[in-house]
Amino acid sequence: MIEKENLIQTLESFKDLPPNWNGYGAQKIKPRIVDSAIKLVRELPITLQAFPTSFGTIQLETGDKNGNYLEIEFLSVDTVAVFIDNENMSATYIESKGLNLKKCRDKTKLLKLLDDFIDSI
Predict the structure, then answer these.
(1) For residue 79, which of 39, 33, 119 has the smallest C-alpha distance?
(2) Percent of the chain at pLDDT above 90?
(3) N or C: which end of the chain has fewer CB within 10 A?
(4) What sign results for the dihedral spanned by CA atoms 41, 42, 48, 49?
(5) CA–centroid distance for 37 within its chain
(6) How far is residue 14's CA from residue 72's CA, in Å, rounded to a whole number?
(7) Where do the domains of the chain lie?
């Protein structure tokens, strides 16, 4: 799938961003965070957009013309925060303190959230 490979290439490029890459003191993104994001992207049934953040994290997101929106932020190598805004799930941070991807139940919860989001759009 070309879109997914392009996303993975974009994520890989984040490893090359130097400290202060945005001119406002952005932190360097740790290569292990990039690798974690790529690992999750490979498992997802949808392709998202990827953005580096000034906090040294990675944000994955998608939305549609109806206002449905999904955001996954890699807070660390193993921890993600999820924000979903759509008609069925309302605007809410889900696990804003983070889901630990090393814990089977947290990873299962994340994949269930993503399935529910996909089913609702």
Answers:
(1) 33
(2) 41
(3) N
(4) positive
(5) 7
(6) 16
(7) 2-120
* Burial annotation 56-79 (CB, 10 A radius, 16+ → b, else e): bbbbbebeeeeebbbbbbbbeebb
List the structure tokens of 97: 């303190």
The single-letter code of the amino acid at 21 is W
Taking alpha carbons only, the member of 34, 53, 38 closest to residue 4 is: 38
Closest CA to 106 of 75, 80, 87, 77: 80
| pLDDT the model gives residue 97 | 61
Distance CA 51, CA 85 (A): 19
